[in-house]
């Protein structure tokens, strides 16, 4: 059982390549909207974050991320809500879809099955079906690519060549080597992952993977906001803290690294391969995944098991009548 | 010097009350927009977060928060950008204002002086001037109330009675008592402040105050997202962690508290006085401020000093030609 999730990570290139051929079912009712809403929790939520980050510098309509049961008041018949849930049964996401349909928004869906797939079929909502039988967080590249495909049918184009994008996942050996070194570095620490705003989704992905696979607490900070408050906490840093800095060609990242080194903080700087923001974040996510599994091994915990999340989902099922 | 900032906190009611009489200078060029952008760093950024949280359930136009140098691509002549900076010299915020003016957006400003005030006067931008000579983070209630006033001139109404809102700050004695107990509880810990999505701005405010005044590291988590990844990190929690849960009448908060107690996590639940989201967050901010100053005393550090932030600002001045 130990290596089940590792096996999936090691197949990311193949899984991603398959995803580039996924079909988009159904047709948009229209393709002009006044705003876009991205709804998803956990790993699906990271897909939302990444798309937001790319659209921040390219979308002419406002984009909002929802990681909750409630949709914003500005959801209307002029909105497009894109819902992502691997299982198709995430109650938060299901709720946002119901509410969006109620106000007449266009809704499209990425899922592997569950109630969301049922709903998409019954209501004729545009959707992409990813491979079932994977562990949700390890299905990440399929969720990302499926969402890119789905959005492009609405003329929201984030990537002109999906096959090229997947190439960044080919060199498993080098990713694995980097990840093993990183796991060794972080193993007995409280990792603080720091990035600039545009790489925030990747920093969060690292944290989530450390939480779920490695059963570790972790913390994320974002520059330049970090330099307005969190920085002061590093004047008397806790010994257990180690820092992982996600490199970008950014003045404030330079300041950050100098500052932390000056404080004697144990840190590593991760430089990302890739031609653009999206491929760099996909590459970084691969390192995050493998590092978190190696950390699980070093810590003697089972990467696959997330008992606490199961407890939460059981609780919700008992208490919420959806 | 030790008590300078405490003196300001102890005058919050008076400062807030003064703010209700601040004048809005200049007139909106128009009052219908397709989207609202809130720009501010640090304590000013928390004002943005709080306004976002209230507007999430009431605004018919999308709202975006910017804590960075760059504005989103969807900023246009149909946008309203509200910039908040106590000093008026925050380079990130200044940059967003320049960019917004370049694309023809309506810009309005809350500040105590600096380049932003100069710009507001020269360009005739609607603005509110808060009291100068305060420490920025301690000027929080004035920044909040000034922003509420400014937005209401654009018919964006978040609070019908500002004077009533300030009443929540009157009972200093009881706030002080709660804060002393909380400081005692948190003094040797890594505080993890957990709230639901709508109270996220308050959770962040606690963290920022602990960072700046108490020179402590701290971490924020938000439910329900917490239950999809971070929760697993609590299966093997670090001994140094203590949790502050911000109470709200919310199923998932109940689950959270039960879960943490079941894990033996040392936690306190903060129940907030107030009639609505805004007054509760203002009340909570008062507790955050006083707690952070008492923590500074317990830790033997000077609450006023934030040398690292000064280093950052010096660095920016040297390296950025604005």
Topology:
2 copies of one chain form a homodimer.
Chain A: H1 4-10, H2 12-19, E1 35-39, H3 42-55, E2 63-66, E3 79-85, H4 91-102, E4 106-111, H5 114-123, E5 127-129, H6 140-152, H7 162-166, H8 172-186, E6 190-196, H9 200-214, E7 219-223, H10 230-233, E8 241-246, H11 251-262, E9 267-270, H12 277-299, H13 307-319
Parallel strand pairs in A: 1-2, 1-3, 3-4, 4-5, 6-7, 6-8, 8-9
Helix pairs in contact in A: 1-12, 2-6, 3-6, 3-9, 8-12, 9-12
Structure description:
Two copies of one chain form a homodimer. Chain A has 322 residues and is α/β, with parallel strands linked by helices. Chain A has two domains: 4-165, Rossmann fold, CATH 3.40.50; 172-299, Rossmann fold (3-Layer(aba) Sandwich). Chain A has helices spanning 4-10, 12-19, 42-55, 91-102, 114-123, 140-152, 162-166, 172-186, 200-214, 230-233, 251-262, 277-299, 307-319, and strands spanning 35-39, 63-66, 79-85, 106-111, 127-129, 190-196, 219-223, 241-246, 267-270. In chain A, helix 1 (4-10) runs antiparallel to helix 12. The longest helix of chain A has 23 residues, at 277-299. Chain A starts with a helix and ends with a helix. The mean pLDDT of chain A is 96.
Chains forming the largest contact? A-B, 69 and 69 residues
Helix/strand/pairing class of chain A, anyone? alpha/beta
Mean pLDDT, all residues of chain A: 96
| H-E string of chain A | HHEHEEHEHEHHHEHEHEHEHH
Amount of beta strand of chain A: 5-15%
- Helix percentage range of chain A: 40-55%
Shape of chain A: globular
Q: Report the C-alpha radius of gyration of chain A, rounded.
A: 20 Å
Low-pLDDT regions of chain A:
none
For the secondary structure, the number of strands of chain A is: 9
User: Major β-sheet of chain A, in short?
Assistant: 5 strands, parallel
Through-space gap between termini of chain A: 33 Å
> Strand order within the widest sheet of chain A?
2-1-3-4-5
Give me the CATH architecture of the largest domain in chain A, please: 3-Layer(aba) Sandwich
């Amino acid at each position: 059982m130990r290596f089940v999730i590792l096996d999936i990570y090691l197949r990311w290139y193949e899984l991603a390549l398959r995803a580039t051929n996924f079909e988009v079912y159904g047709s948009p009712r229209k393709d002009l909207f006044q705003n876009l809403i991205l709804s998803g929790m956990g790993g699906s939520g990271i897909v939302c974050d990444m798309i937001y980050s790319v659209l921040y510098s390219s979308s002419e309509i406002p984009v909002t991320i929802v990681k909750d049961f409630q949709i914003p008041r500005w959801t209307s018949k002029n909105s497009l809500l894109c819902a992502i849930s691997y299982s198709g049964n995430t109650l938060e996401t299901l709720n946002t879809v119901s509410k969006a349909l109620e106000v007449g928004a266009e809704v499209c869906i990425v899922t592997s099955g569950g109630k969301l797939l049922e709903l998409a079929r019954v209501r004729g909502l545009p959707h992409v079906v990813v491979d079932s039988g994977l562990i949700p967080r390890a299905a990440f590249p399929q969720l990302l690519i499926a969402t890119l495909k789905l959005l492009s049918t609405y003329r929201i184009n984030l990537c002109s060549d999906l096959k090229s994008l997947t190439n960044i996942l080919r060199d498993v050996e080098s990713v694995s080597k980097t990840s093993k070194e990183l796991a060794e570095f972080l193993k007995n620490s409280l990792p603080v992952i720091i990035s600039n705003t545009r790489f925030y989704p990747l920093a969060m992905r690292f944290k989530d993977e450390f939480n779920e696979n490695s059963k570790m607490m972790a913390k994320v900070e974002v520059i330049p906001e970090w330099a307005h408050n969190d920085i002061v906490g590093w004047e008397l840093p806790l010994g257990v803290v180690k820092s992982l800095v996600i490199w970008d060609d950014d003045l404030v990242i330079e300041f950050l690294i100098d500052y932390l080194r000056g404080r004697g903080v144990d840190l590593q700087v991760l430089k990302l391969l890739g031609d653009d923001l999206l491929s760099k974040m996909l590459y970084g996510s691969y390192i995050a995944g493998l590092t978190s599994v190696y950390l699980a091994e070093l810590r003697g915990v089972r990467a696959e098991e997330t008992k606490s999340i199961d407890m939460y989902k059981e609780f919700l099922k008992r208490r919420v009548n959806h």
